[in-house]
Amino acid sequence: MTDDDKQQQQQQQQQQQQQQKQQEKEEIQELLTFFDNTTASSQPAVLSVDTLLHNLSTTCSPKKIFESIVPHIFHKDPKHQQAAETLFVSIISHKPLWLSDAATVMLSYVRSLTQEKGLDSSDSGIKEESSRMIHCIIFYPSTLKLMISQMSHTSVSIADLFSTTLETLCLLQPDEITDTVLDMLSSTLSSTSSSSLSSPMAMPDDATLMIRYYTLYFKIISAPTIKNNVNAKYQNVLMKPFLKALENDQDPLLQMGLLEILEQTSSMREDFFQNWCEPELDRALLKMVGQQVVPTQQHPCKKVQIQSTGSGIGGSGGDFHPFCSGAALRLLAIREHYQFLDRNDFVQVLMDYGGRNASAGEVEKIGFIDGITTFCCHFDNSDDNSNRNSNVDLILQNQELLNEWLTLRMGQSKLKAVVMNSVARVLEVKELLHSSRLELYQMIGKVNDVGRGEDTTQIIMQYVKGQVVELRLAAYGILTAVANVRMGAHMLMKFGGFFEFLCNRNLEIVKEGKELKYGLVMAVWNSEVKGLLADDIVRALEQVVLDGPFYVKQVRDVALE
């Protein structure tokens, strides 16, 4: 084939592509003309939609069709918007297999509203621009109803696409769209909890739908742009079926899912969950950790008291939830305004939970450690600096809790690593007082010393030099955490052989271990102790810092004849 032939062939291909694009443009224009000429009150006939779709050639993909329709759903002209919305819903009802394309295009377009001109969704410019386009969708919410209804679709991906689209719309227009979406969610949840779903696309299990709906609800109300009065408005309506499901021990998977939603919400917006004074929530959480709320006349300042439903501290019984007790304990640990208990009461709950699980399995032990760690890491933002570490102080005053928490004498390496990671996590909370953090670190030695006079650093160094990788990594973490505490690096450098350990690059062979050990070196190097060290020690540490975590000493072999 000559060069002229190749060039002619390329020109023909380009002409065909241009003709195809022109044909697609004309076909899309037919769609636009169809719904643009439709009045707001009219409904396209079934035959009209079928004929319209049939006339489209196979080259016009469903994605292109929806890309032409979706922008018009957000049109500022009510009649134009409703006509586009009607066509959008009609096409999906005629072509259910196109639903995935419709969801993808809808989410992509809504996200593009936050990306135009590089603006963030919280930017006032985006709010003004999107307000004109989203205004009509509130008054003719057929598309919103469609998206909420499709959250019950058997395809998880389709349900997630529509859920994310609704969440994004609420972030763009929190005042206008949030009320509409939450009203629809309230109605849907009420019908879901009172009767079984009969939709052919609905999931067979209502628990799955509840998880989907409440995940969206909590994402919406926990967003920074959502006002607190929005949560108060819908709390009574939406929380009744939520709390009822949370107390239903016959469906532990649903309970676990709802607790996970609460934990995710608390991580996104802690103030919302802390200040949510809902007595039934406290009752349900306390029940899961083996506690019950009973009236009392003994304490004039308290109308109720917490009473264990098990056989007490150190007992073998206990009515705590076999799957959800750990999550419930973590949630109680961050509840700032407890309805039935204060911080001292929660310490008693920890003692009871830890004592009854002392001889239990690994899961229960980890649940207890997670609960006490969360409690120690949390502090009341309303307190002054002198009271910010009150939770840690309460634990340090309780030797029984410390023995349950800090013991490294158990046989399982995993639990030992969990304990060290737990302490490291508390030591990393910079808002806590340095003295309390160092005291917690030193308590490891007091709890685990078996009469040989071993302190904490000596015990941890045994693990960091050991053969078990999991324990080595955890030991690096706790040593780095204490080195970042004021006077912590002084304590480590006073330990015999610690400096030599830092400079020895041959001990650690695991990549992650090398990185963690280098992080420990950097923590010591950046601490105040550097100014108190001899010059040769400082130069040696500086060389380790310059060499990096993966330095290998070169060994030259000399060949002798």
Brief sketch in words of this structure:
By secondary structure, the chain is an all-alpha fold. It is built from 27 helices and 2 strands.
Polypeptide structure, described:
It contains 27 helices and two strands. It is mainly α and 561 residues long. Strands 1-2 form a two-stranded antiparallel ribbon. A hairpin with an 8-residue loop joins strand 1 and strand 2 (304-308). The longest helix has 34 residues, at 3-36.
Average pLDDT figure: 78
> What order do the strands of the largest sheet run in, or round the barrel if closed?
1-2
The fraction of residues assigned to DSSP E strands is: under 5%
Counting DSSP E segments of at least 2 residues, the number of strands comes to 2
Largest sheet: 2 strands, antiparallel
Which outline best applies?
flat
Task: Return the string of H and E elements.
Answer: HHHHHHHHHHHHHHEEHHHHHHHHHHHHH
- Structural class of the secondary elements? mainly alpha
N- and C-termini, Cα separation: 66 Å
Uncertain parts: 38-47, 117-129, 194-204, 299-304, 311-318, 383-389
- Approximately how much helix is present in the residues? 55-70%
Helix run count: 27
State Rg: 31 Å
